[in-house]
Each structure stands twice: as structure tokens, then as C-alpha cells.
From TrEMBL:
The keyword Transmembrane applies. Pfam families: Ilm1 (PF10311). InterPro entries: Incr_loss_mito_DNA_1. The chain crosses the membrane at residues 6-25, 58-77, 89-109, 130-147. This is Increased loss of mitochondrial DNA protein 1.
């Protein structure tokens, strides 16, 4: 039995997405000032975004709205019946973990100062400490959620089977 249930973790990630979406819409410059983002960015040698994040309010606002939409759809999915939600998140967990892990790896290996095969003068808007920190934390969260889903699987199957038996007994009465 995990310490924190998988669906609780998904709800926490959903709340984090809503908060991050709000900050992207209302005050994107605050994201660049968060100490943990600066520390993680400095630790891996990534640049801190200076002004392009809040000088492009259309891009930041669109990203914020996309995160809020993702959060709302995730909240609806996690609030559905347990059997349906377990199938959905059992498929979504590894896909999201792989995507964010790949994004984290891409940012790390393509950061400035490493030997690259592409033109160094080409600006890379996603290679910065904010995107890296977000992708890194998402990778960790989704790996944690996926492992919790796997740990809870036997327990959940027993509950679902018992619920179906009770429904069948009620239907036969």
C-alpha cells in the first residue's frame, strides 16, 4: 500500500497545473523568480529566462490556458468510476512519464555549451530552466503515479470484482 494514493497524486498534479496556468496568464514573470527553478537551472547549467516569457503575453497566456484545460480534463478523468479511471490512468501514466522524460533529456543534452550537431545560433525557446524544471517535476510525478497505480492494482481489482458481484446480486433480486 503506497503512502499516498495515485488518484490523490493526480488531483495534486491537477491543482499544480491550475496554479501554474494562472501564473502563466496573470504574472508570468513570477515564474522566473522562483528559487527552486533558479537552483535547478543553475545546477544543470541552463539559462534563466530573462524577459521573453513576459514580453510575449500571447504565448504565456496560451500556455496557461492549455495547462488549465489539461487540468480540468484530468480532474474529470480522475473523478470518473474507479474501473474506467484505472484503465485511463494506467495508459496515461507511462505515456506522460515517457514524454516528459524525453523532454527533460532533450533540454539537458541540447543545452548551450555542449557539442551539438545543429547550428548554435538558432534560438531554442524551450531550452531554459523553467521548462526544464517543469518537465523534470512532471517526470517524477508521473513515475510516482504510475508506480502507485501498479501497487494498488490488486487491491483495486478485488474492490471492482466485489462491487460487480454486489450489483449482480441486486440485479437478480
Amino acid at each position: 500500500m503506497p503512502i499516498v494514493r495515485a488518484f490523490t497524486l493526480i488531483r495534486l498534479v491537477t491543482v499544480a497545473h491550475i496554479i501554474l496556468g494562472y501564473y502563466l496568464i496573470a504574472r508570468p514573470q513570477k515564474l522566473a523568480e522562483i528559487n527552486s527553478i533558479a537552483i535547478i537551472g543553475d545546477a544543470v547549467g541552463l539559462q534563466q529566462p530573462t524577459s521573453h516569457l513576459w514580453q510575449n503575453p500571447l504565448g504565456a497566456g496560451f500556455a496557461g490556458l492549455a495547462l488549465i484545460l489539461l487540468a480540468v480534463s484530468d480532474f474529470v478523468a480522475v473523478s470518473s468510476t474507479e474501473e474506467l479511471a484505472r484503465h485511463y490512468w494506467g495508459a496515461q501514466g507511462p505515456v506522460r512519464c515517457l514524454f516528459f522524460g524525453s523532454l527533460t533529456s532533450y533540454i539537458y543534452f541540447m543545452k548551450p555549451g555542449r557539442d551539438k550537431m545543429y547550428d548554435q545560433t538558432t534560438p531554442q525557446p524551450i531550452i531554459n530552466s523553467i521548462i526544464f524544471s517543469w518537465a523534470f517535476f512532471e517526470t517524477v510525478y508521473w513515475f510516482w503515479i504510475y508506480t502507485n497505480l501498479r501497487e494498488e492494482l490488486a487491491e483495486a481489482r478485488a474492490r471492482i470484482t466485489q462491487r460487480k458481484k454486489m450489483q449482480d446480486e441486486i440485479a437478480t433480486l
